[in-house]
Amino acid sequence: MTTTALPGLPAAATSVRLIASDLDGTLLNHRQEVTPRTTAAIRAAFDAGLTVVAATGRQVPQLPEPVLASGIRYVVASNGAIGVDLTDDTLLFEVLLAPAVAADIVAHLTAELEGVRFSAVRDAGARHAAEPGYLDMMAPLERSLWAKVFQPAPLAELVSRPTLKLTVRHPTLTADDLLAVLDASGLTGFHATTSGAPFLEIQGDGVTKASGVARLCGLLGFEAVDVMAAGDARNDVELIAWAGFGVAMGNAVPEAMAAADWTTAHNEDDGLARAIEQVLAAIADDPR
């Protein structure tokens, strides 16, 4: 890929003390790798005294090995619903979707869309309860990677207790199509989003990556002005907008780019590494 020249950073970049990065499409390339340049940039951030946080729609048990090996200690997962300290797997916080709200969502979408299927994330992300037919909509590679964590369950069981995330699939509609149907329902008490994955993702009321990183920052002693947030998808928009320095990847959706203070290169062109490198250089040159 051709290297892209990047614009100068805004002044807010010199205040960065914590970097919150999305994984898929941001920290990871299409092979699910953390490139050598990105690894070096993260290590340089650590050496400069910065904290680096993974902020992802994934569940903690689904983190790729390269992320675990990168030295990142804190993870905000399930689109902000859970925070974990990886050094000892300490659960820092967890915000769940209420059963009654999930039941209303399931009832509405089932009535509106023939063939829709649901799954509920259980046990801090270690298990997924999926109604019959849900796994049939997974691509073969998805099934080979994740089928073992899915357990069949009747629809009534899915909404019988709180869940980290409710996911929704349909045989023909995209995740964005499903989001539009749910947005038109008038239902409340949840936050729904998409991440580029082939399913709709629904968390508790007000739960976003921004709320999760803000909660973690409160525990660690940081404020929004201290945060650089980088991402590429719809589920990154709130975090990018909240952070003192919001960065959109060159491969980001238009909503993420509109929310950002600055746009870096594509994730296949080490966009995150290049952003971190420029931030560290700006901090080093800051006379304060």
How does this model look, in words?
The protein is built from ten helices and 14 strands. The chain is α/β, with parallel strands linked by helices. The longest helix is centred in the last third of the chain and has 15 residues. It is elongated, with a radius of gyration of 19 Å. The mean pLDDT is 95.
Summarize the entry for a quick read.
The chain has helices at residues 36-47, 65-68, 99-112, 140-146, 155-158, 175-183, 209-220, 237-242, 254-259, 271-285; strands at 18-21, 51-55, 74-77, 82-85, 90-94, 117-122, 127-130, 150-152, 166-169, 190-193, 200-204, 227-231, 245-248, 262-263.
**Biggest sheet: strands side by side, in what order?**
5-4-3-2-1-12-13-14
Order of helices and strands: EHEHEEEHEEHEHEHEEHEHEHEH
Number of separate helices = 10
Mean pLDDT: 95
Distance between the termini: 37 Å
Beta-strand share of residues: 15-25%
Question: Could you say which overall geometry the principal axes of the C-alpha atoms support?
Answer: elongated
Classify the secondary structure makeup into a structural class. alpha/beta
| β-strand number | 14
> What's the story with the biggest beta sheet?
8 strands, mixed
Uncertain runs with pLDDT below 50, 5 residues or more? none
Overall helicity: 25-40%
Backbone CA Rg: 19 Å
